[in-house]
Amino acid sequence: MIIKNKKGEIFTIFAVLLGILGAGAFFLSSIGMQKRGGLSVRVVDAYDLTPIKNADIIIPSADIVAKTDESGLAAATLPITKNSPQEMALSQSWGECTIIAACPGYRPTVMLYAHVYKDKLSRAVIYLFPEDKDGEEVITVVEPPDEEWIKALVEKYLS
Predict the structure, then answer these.
(1) What DSSP string describes 4-20?
(2) What is the pLDDT of residues 111-140, one digit of tens each?
(3) pTM of structure
(4) For residue range 67-76, what is the model confidence (pLDDT) as tens digits?
(5) In angstroms, rounded to a whole number, what is the distance separating the alpha carbons of residues 43 and 35?
(6) Residue whose C-alpha is closest to residue 61's, from 116, 107, 7, 108
(7) What is the rounded distance in angstroms from the CA atom of residue 71 to the CA atom of residue 13?
(8) d(Cα 39, Cα 41) in Å, to the nearest integer?
(9) Nearest C-alpha neighbor of 101 from the set 29, 148, 40
(10) Which residues, including other chains, have CB under 8 Å from residue 78's CB and lie 6 or more apart?
(11) CB 121 within 8 A of CB 77
(12) Whole-angstrom Cα distance, residue 107 to residue 134?
């Protein structure tokens, strides 16, 4: 649409609207239209494997805080965040997050690189150790990359 003002100057409304729509699309993509995946976290006692109710689950990268239910489960939907160094070496089909699990009477456990897949529910099990047992003050576990991805990485760089 073209509009002339009193002096005969032409304004292109289309360009202005296009700019507004483009900025809006960028804003929406940055706040909620990005790739997302589901994550189910189950927290159990490391010795007897019983579910731990009311354990705190924290996913710092997504600013998520949750509590486990009676069956030791908590679930969240979060953005897919790639591991930049791994992604640079070889594209990966999953994102990763850090999960912190804690409950009174147990040592906190941090799971690094928990996998999150686009439009799919990923599952993580975190084993909490009682505080009264000998061991580390905070437990750290790491979810390794997919075995096929590791094989492809080795083949890419050693072939």
Answers:
(1) E-TT--EEEHHHHHHHH
(2) 999 999 888 899 999 999 998 766 668 889
(3) 0.73
(4) 999 999 999 9
(5) 26
(6) 116
(7) 58
(8) 6
(9) 40
(10) 36, 37, 39, 59, 61, 62, 64, 97, 116
(11) no
(12) 11
